[in-house]
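Hello,

Our lab assistant flagged a job as stuck in the queue for most of the afternoon. It eventually completed. Since we weren't sure the result was trustworthy after the delay, we are filing this so someone can double-check. Below is the sequence as submitted and the structure that was eventually returned. Let us know if re-running is recommended.
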Amino acid sequence: MSMQADYERITTAIRFLDEQSAELPRLSEVAEEVGLSEFHFQKVFQRWAGISPKRFLQHAASGRAIELLRRKSSALETSLSAGLSGPGRLHDLTLQIVAMTPGEVQRLGHGLRIAYAFSDTPFGLALIGLTDRGICHLSFAASKDEGLRELKEEWPHSSLSKDPGRVQKIADAVFKPLSRRLPLALCLKGTNFQVRVWEALLKIPEGRLSTYGSLAKTLGSPGASRAVGSAVGDNPIAYLIPCHRVIRATGAFGQYRWGEERKRAMIAYESLRSAAE
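-- returned structure --
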């Protein structure tokens, strides 16, 4: 069974828990909702996250976000000195930022060659775009047509070529970091402010969360929470640049470019992985 199928069942489970939170549904009820026996439901979660569904469901609850936010000692402020490969950063995956020049940004990819392909990941179907300078795009889409359209809109003057073999090596490095550790470069197209925000996101430790306000303060712009939120939402490289680790100060998960249920799944997944390590 594919990771995509596992992920779809996980999002269904999260949605069901939201709707039935007041009743505190039993594990057997959640399993029935996703169309599996309790035994097979256990196997799906164990395969997906390496932990029991009971622990996952506990971490997927919104109250868990408040607990993560309260861990002041491991928030953004204390991780700034760790650099892009600090502890918990995707299992010490080494990342390098390559920001495009204003002229390159203005040309919208004119003369740029982008290799792309779709890959099955623990969080659904992902589209990855690669340049000779690094990863320029990583998104999750409801369909391949939608994902490819978004890539073309982002780089309208580039030359696109399908390259599944090259992309799969990168996907394995990102989503199966223990099996293949590769140094990765991120090729970013954005304003100076956006790039600063994305660099700050990379320094939020895996398994921890920050808020838009805290992120703004870290950047030296405490009154710019709204602008920071916009930059977070414009992140072109999902998961690797972890915009999913930023939530509202109330503990609400807030909107996510690729779906709130995916954001919650990522947060629970990373929280549990971090705790296990």
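-- support follow-up --
The delay was a queue issue, not a problem with the job. The result is valid. The beta strands are 95-99, 113-121, 124-131, 134-140, 159-162, 184-188, 210-211, 246-247. The longest helix spans residues 3-19.
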